[in-house]
Specification:
With 289 residues, the protein is of the alpha/beta class. Helices cover 44% and strands 27% of the residues. Strands 3, 4, 5, 6, 7, 10, 11 and 12 form an 8-stranded mixed beta sheet that branches. The chain is globular, with a radius of gyration of 22 Å.
Length: 289
C-alpha cells in the first residue's frame, strides 16, 4: 500500500469520476485504475462500484477512504512541521468553501495568502454547508467556511471563528411592484411565486418565513445562484439570497433589504489540531475579513 494509492482513492471518492480524479492528480486514467485495482487486491475487498455514470464507494471503500484521509492529513502535518523546523515553508492546504463565500469573500483572501505563502499549494473545494462540514470532519478539507446555524450536525470537534456578517436580501425582478421599496417583509414575498435556494440557505430562509408567520409558495427549488438570478430576471418569481452571493451588477434584478433586517454569520472552521498552513490561513483571513 502506498501514499499514492491512498491519494487516488481520496480523489476518486471526492470527484466520483476516474477521469476527473486523474486530471486533479495530473496523471492518467489508466494509472488511476491500475492503482485502485492494486489497492483492492492488496486489501482483498472491492472499494468501488463502477457504473456508466461514474464510480461510488462500497461500505469497505468508505471505511478505507476515511482512514486514508486521516493518514494523508497526518502525513501533510508532519511534512509541514518538519519544514517549519528547518525554517522552510511547504505543503498544501485544502479549503472547503460554501458558494457565497467563495464568490466574493475568499478570492482576495486566497490571493493574499498565496502572496504571503507562495510555496503552499492551495486547493479550493466548493460545496454546501453540509458537504464542507463532512470534508472537515473526515479530513478531506483542512479549513473551511460554514454558515452559523445552517449545520445541524455536531461541530464540537471543530474550532469555529466568526469571519464576517452577511445581509440576507430580497431579490426581485427590476419591474416588480416590491422593487420600489426600501425594505420588504418576508410575508409580502410569500404572496408571490418563490424560488428557493437549495445551495445552503434554505434552512435560514425557512426560519425567516416561520418567524414572520408566512408560508412561502416555492414554485422552484434551485441550487445554483446564477440560475436563480436568471429566473428572477425573467419574472418567474422572487427569492432571498445572501448579499455575498450577488454579483456587483446583474441585469433585470433588484435587491432590497428585508424587514426586519436579517443577517447570517459566516464562520471559519478548523480541526482542533490544524495544519500549520491552516492556522496561518485563519490568521490572515481574520485580518482581511
Amino acid at each position: 500500500m502506498t501514499f499514492t494509492q491512498l491519494r487516488i482513492l481520496q480523489a476518486v471518492a471526492r470527484t466520483g469520476n476516474m477521469t476527473r480524479a486523474a486530471e486533479e492528480l495530473n496523471t492518467t486514467q489508466s494509472a488511476v485504475s491500475h492503482a485502485l485495482r492494486g489497492l483492492e487486491s492488496e486489501l482483498g475487498v472491492s472499494l468501488l462500484v463502477r457504473g456508466s455514470h461514474g464510480v461510488s464507494l462500497t461500505a469497505a471503500g468508505r471505511a478505507a477512504c476515511r482512514r486514508a484521509t486521516l493518514i494523508l492529513t497526518q502525513l501533510e502535518a508532519l511534512e509541514q512541521e518538519v519544514a517549519a523546523a528547518r525554517g522552510e515553508e511547504r505543503g498544501s492546504l485544502r479549503v472547503g468553501a460554501i458558494p457565497s463565500a467563495n464568490a466574493r469573500l475568499l478570492p482576495r483572501i486566497l490571493r493574499a495568502f498565496g502572496e504571503a505563502h507562495p510555496r503552499v499549494r492551495l486547493t479550493v473545494i466548493e460545496g454546501s454547508d453540509g458537504e464542507v462540514l463532512d470534508w472537515l470532519q473526515t479530513g478531506a478539507a483542512d479549513i473551511g467556511t460554514l454558515t452559523a446555524g445552517a449545520v445541524a450536525a455536531d461541530t464540537s470537534d471543530l474550532v469555529l471563528r466568526p469571519l464576517t456578517t452577511d445581509r440576507m436580501l430580497a431579490v426581485l425582478p427590476s419591474g416588480h411592484a416590491l422593487a420600489v421599496r426600501h425594505s420588504v417583509p418576508v410575508a409580502d414575498l410569500a404572496r408571490h411565486p418563490f424560488i428557493m435556494s437549495t445551495g445552503g440557505c434554505e434552512p435560514l430562509i425557512t426560519a425567516l418565513a416561520r418567524e414572520a408567520g408566512a408560508s412561502l409558495r416555492c414554485h422552484y427549488r434551485v441550487r445554483d445562484t446564477n440560475s436563480i438570478l436568471a429566473m428572477v430576471a425573467e419574472g418567474l418569481g422572487v427569492s432571498v439570497l445572501p448579499e455575498l452571493s450577488l454579483p456587483a451588477h446583474h441585469a433585470g434584478i433588484h435587491a432590497v433589504q428585508l424587514e426586519p433586517a436579517a443577517d447570517r454569520t459566516i464562520l471559519l472552521a478548523l480541526p482542533a489540531d490544524p495544519l500549520p498552513a491552516a492556522t496561518a490561513f485563519a490568521e490572515l483571513a481574520g485580518a482581511w475579513a
